[in-house]
Design a protein that fits this description.
single chain, about 190 residues, 8 helices
């Protein structure tokens, strides 16, 4: 949208591939042609004018054709800009408060036991059978071993989720996510 901000009036001159320098790479040529097609569509379909109109509304400015109709009146009510700013503030208050992350990562409450852990439970039960013979309540002991394995798997899943949450938070901090998200909210509330 920064290109739109620099435009006073849209230019309706068509851009053609011949305007650019010769492109040797076929992929670059395809991308350039698709870009030119999209740019021409934006200009001639009315999308660009609609975006410029929304930007002027947010800046408390009349459209150039309206300025000629109203003459010397320089009062702009700005109701649309007021609503846009209010929506932006509400969204920012909800999603970008100063302390909380607007997301969390939680592991599955009952994670699936990996195959290697299931094998360890079976091996431990077999060892006990070999050493002590057949205990009276073998089912009870099997459940105990399974619960211990399940508790271990839950702890590992929680540790992995916490580590991933820290990693994602670090990457988002390094990428200045809050600032970029706030800019997105501004554009989201301004442009249709």
């Amino acid at each position: 949208m920064s290109n739109l901000a620099s435009l006073a009036e849209p230019s309706y001159a068509s851009v053609t591939p011949s305007d650019a320098q010769p492109i040797a790479d076929e992929l670059a040529r395809i991308v350039r042609n698709d870009f030119i097609t999209a740019e021409n569509y934006r200009r001639f379909s009315g999308v660009e004018e609609r975006l410029l109109q929304a930007m002027r509304m947010r800046r408390y400015q009349y459209d150039p054709q309206d300025v000629g109709l109203i003459g010397a009146i320089d009062i702009y009510m700005g109701i649309g800009a007021l609503k846009s700013r209010a929506a932006e503030s509400w969204i920012n208050d909800i999603l970008l408060n100063s302390f909380d992350k607007p997301w969390t990562i939680k592991p599955d409450p009952i994670p699936n036991l990996p195959d290697w852990l299931k094998e360890q439970v079976v091996d431990a039960l077999e060892k006990e059978l070999e050493q002590m013979g057949v205990p009276e309540d073998i089912r009870k002991r099997a459940k105990e071993l399974k619960q211990a394995a399940q508790k271990y798997a839950v702890q590992k899943a929680q540790d992995a989720a916490a580590a991933m949450e820290t990693k994602i938070d670090n990457q988002m901090t390094e990428g200045d996510w809050r600032n970029h998200f706030a800019q997105f909210i501004t554009h989201f509330c301004t442009f249709p």
